[in-house]
Q: What sequence folds into this?
DNA sequence: ATCTATACTGACCAGTCAGTCATTATACTG
DNA sequence: CAGTATAATGACTGACTGGTCAGTATAGAT
């Protein structure tokens, strides 16, 4: 009784992630993913029901990685600010070479994928909400410790994503200036208003 | 000597904008756009070279609208902060019913559209850069008037886009909480750190 | 070693849709 | 009004790709 290989599944996931980052979902061919994973095209369908299913797999996989980073850092003994900073830096480190991956995270980008939206909603949105909850928890901790202003932790978590996004844009090929990603985090922390 | 109708061109652009916002570029059929615009499918090709050309047209059109709003507001006699706030509110007002439009603005989302990326680069990126320059000018003004911290205006402009994005997410169907868009702007202005 | 059940393969197929173009419609001119 | 040139039409076409499945390969059991 032969087993499907976890190894092969991961190879397909990784190949799909790479291709989706390079080209986007719609310009990604199953054939390309298969070739990059070193399997036959039909093999992809042994592990994933169809193309949208593969996409959902990739997105959940990415979000779980992002959450793992948060969890590891949340366990450290340092201030909430330092924790947010570390999550930020770690994420930047991971995605700097593939900024397009961020589109996997933003849901309104995924309105685009109408064919998978119901499935996306059922299987990815819960994960994404957990990601935001993880970030919210860090913010809540900071509020309780008097480090952060009294703001909605949920919105702050979402704004953190926006700041992360801006960070990637700020160093990107097309819109980049003389920035480092940390400057975007600085704006997130301190705002643009001058204190009086 | 018959002329092509500007009216018809705009109808096609508007229809394409609506469909792209509702479904994304790849789930948008030329047939759907034509029907929504009240023209035949082949007519679309009288005004736009091909599908990517239509997409570029829509994106440039949206960016120009966003810029018009900035320009109008920049002319008013009020503080730089108030100006940014008004741009923010006006944009929110325009896009609240179609948050997906924001994907037209963020370039790494458009890496997805490999078929149009070179064309996009040549025709849309210059407009997008101008949009960011317009915002940067407002920020620069605020810095000179002592209202804003000494930060890179360019990065602040990008962060403004990120904050705008977060605002839309914060009130969205999937990730929304009890927020108003203005709260995201508040975070952009004052950050999350508590002042000491 | 043989047998079995499942993994794996890749040529094939059907459906889709962007783009085409022969035909028709219509605005404009004299 | 007739003629002309261009706009507009929509059925058709061909390229493409996701998914299928008959055939092959192979791991595991006996």
A:
């Amino acid at each position: 009784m032969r087993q499907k290989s976890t190894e092969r599944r991961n190879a397909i996931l990784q190949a799909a992630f790479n291709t989706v980052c390079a080209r986007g979902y719609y310009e990604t061919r199953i054939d390309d993913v298969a070739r990059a994973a070193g399997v036959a095209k039909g093999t992809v369908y042994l592990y994933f029901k169809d193309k949208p299913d593969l996409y959902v797999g990739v997105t959940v996989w990415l979000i779980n990685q992002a959450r793992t980073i948060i969890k590891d850092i949340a366990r450290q003994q340092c201030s909430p600010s330092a924790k947010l900073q570390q999550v930020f830096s770690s994420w930047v480190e991971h995605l700097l070479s593939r900024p397009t991956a961020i589109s996997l995270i933003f849901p309104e980008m995924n309105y685009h994928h109408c064919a998978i939206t119901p499935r996306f909603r059922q299987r990815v949105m819960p994960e994404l909400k957990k990601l935001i909850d993880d970030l919210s928890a860090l913010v809540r901790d900071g509020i309780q410790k008097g480090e952060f202003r009294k703001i909605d932790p949920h919105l702050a978590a979402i704004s953190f994503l926006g700041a992360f996004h801006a960070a990637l844009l700020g160093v990107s090929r097309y819109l980049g200036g003389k920035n480092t990603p940390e400057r975007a985090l600085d704006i997130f922390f301190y705002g643009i208003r001058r204190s009086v």
Remarks:
- Chain B has two domains: 1-48, 52-190.
- Residues 52-190 of chain B form a domain with the Tetracycline Repressor; domain 2 fold (CATH 1.10.357.10).
- The mean pLDDT of chain B is 89.
